[in-house]
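ok, trying the design again with the full structure, not the truncated one.
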């Protein structure tokens, strides 16, 4: 851009003659640091950068190897001060503030964004800082905030007075909570639609989420958000004394990922469409109370239409007592590490889902199916199942279970087998054998990829 602005004598600088609004729009495609550097181009550009409505302020972008850390921190402080305290009528559409070292000025920066710049979306990342951070009270009464994402590695103290009337999205990651702070924070956001919380469970006695307009809820207590991978949850993340309460009549999406809690109370979830549930235990001997607690959770989401399961607790639960009927469920996805016990549990699971239309499961389940074929075929196989998808099929897999599904599913339209570990010749042999097998559904197509 600098070369374009350097014109020969007598020639017109067309870019600089554009209106401020257009120039600011051009600057919005640059990083914040690059946008500020344009102030050196000419007097026309000197203060245009302050009109940029999206700011990304990250202290890691200022680190230079083999330089004085104190000087680098001071340089970043001056840069942020210049961006947030400069007198301008332009409100901030989005501010991302990431601080990994000295957080001493964070209080004043957040206050400026909330009171002076009318920020609408605020992303605060202090997850790598070891310092205790006090957030200003004005953050919790900011009327312009629509989106708040807070990543903090220390306890989050919510003041007694909280009012966020326009907040629709609230994401809290790594934070620790005290007493009823979660519920007080949520209840203050009267039009909240999306709530994401990832926290540590060691100090949790109760999580109470009651909201009329909440549409999306993600709860990850301990561990990492790795739904499709083998996950290790810290042994300290014990919820054996905690209760989880969810009352959200507008909720359409729920993701719950944690060790099993002492109790669950899920009410008014009739609008729920999509649920992803991962329950984990770090012991083989499960108490009756834990089975009862897990059943409460599944009973609360019985109206869901699409369900993804991970973790082995459900397999063990089915061994103890019949699962609550999921008569509205049309799609089920079972992730790896779901089952390692009697395969009968898999068919019992299908028996509780009479209207299932789409089923996805990994080959580790498929291999076990050959060891057990049910006397009574699940009704979903007979009348409703239209799509079956099997992942991670290997040369150690067996085709007998697939042939059983083909013989039983009367309305099946498509069977897809993902054989990532096989070469093309092996895939072709599998496809030919399946195509030659009897199929109850005459319109079923078979795909091996």
């Amino acid at each position: 851009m600098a070369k374009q602005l350097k014109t020969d004598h007598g020639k017109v600088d067309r870019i600089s003659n554009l209106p401020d609004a257009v120039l600011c729009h051009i600057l919005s495609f640059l990083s914040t640091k690059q946008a500020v550097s344009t102030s050196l181009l000419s007097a026309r550009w000197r203060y245009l950068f302050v009109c940029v409505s999206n700011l990304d302020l990250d202290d890691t972008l200022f680190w230079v190897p083999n330089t004085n850390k104190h000087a680098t921190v001071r340089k970043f402080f001056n840069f942020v001060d210049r961006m947030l305290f400069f007198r301008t009528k332009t409100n901030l559409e989005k501010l991302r503030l990431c601080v990994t070292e000295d957080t001493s000025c964070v209080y004043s920066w957040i206050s400026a964004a909330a009171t002076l710049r009318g920020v609408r979306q605020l992303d605060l990342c202090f997850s790598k800082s070891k310092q205790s951070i006090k957030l200003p009270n004005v953050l919790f009464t900011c009327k312009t905030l629509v989106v708040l994402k807070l990543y903090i590695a220390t306890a989050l103290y919510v003041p007694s007075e909280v009012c966020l009337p326009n907040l629709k999205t609230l994401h809290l990651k790594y934070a620790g909570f005290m007493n009823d702070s979660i519920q007080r924070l949520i209840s203050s956001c009267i039009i909240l639609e999306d709530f994401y919380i990832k926290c540590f469970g060691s100090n949790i006695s109760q999580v109470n989420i009651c909201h009329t307009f909440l549409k999306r809820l993600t709860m990850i207590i301990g561990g990492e958000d790795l739904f499709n991978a083998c996950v290790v949850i810290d042994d300290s993340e014990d919820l054996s004394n905690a209760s989880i309460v969810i009352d959200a009549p507008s909720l359409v999406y729920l993701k719950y990922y944690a060790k099993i809690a002492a109790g669950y109370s899920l009410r008014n979830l009739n609008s729920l469409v999509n649920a992803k549930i991962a329950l984990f235990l770090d012991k083989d001997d499960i108490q009756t109370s834990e089975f009862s607690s897990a059943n409460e959770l599944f009973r609360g989401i019985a109206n869901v239409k699409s369900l993804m399961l991970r973790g082995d607790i459900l397999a063990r639960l089915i061994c103890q007592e019949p699962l609550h009927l999921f008569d509205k469920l049309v799609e089920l996805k079972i992730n790896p590490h779901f089952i390692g016990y009697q395969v009968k549990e898999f068919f019992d699971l299908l028996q509780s889902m009479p209207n299932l239309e789409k089923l996805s499961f990994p080959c580790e389940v498929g291999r076990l199916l050959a060891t057990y074929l049910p006397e009574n075929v699940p009704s979903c196989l007979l009348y409703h199942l239209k799509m079956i998808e099997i992942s991670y099929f290997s040369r150690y897999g067996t085709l007998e279970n697939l042939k059983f599904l083909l013989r039983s599913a009367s309305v099946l339209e498509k069977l897809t087998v993902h054989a990532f570990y096989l070469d093309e010749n092996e895939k072709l042999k599998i496809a030919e054998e399946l195509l030659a097998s009897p199929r109850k559904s005459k319109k079923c197509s078979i795909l091996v990829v």
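Keeping the full-length input from now on. The CA atoms of residues 315 and 345 lie 6 Å apart.
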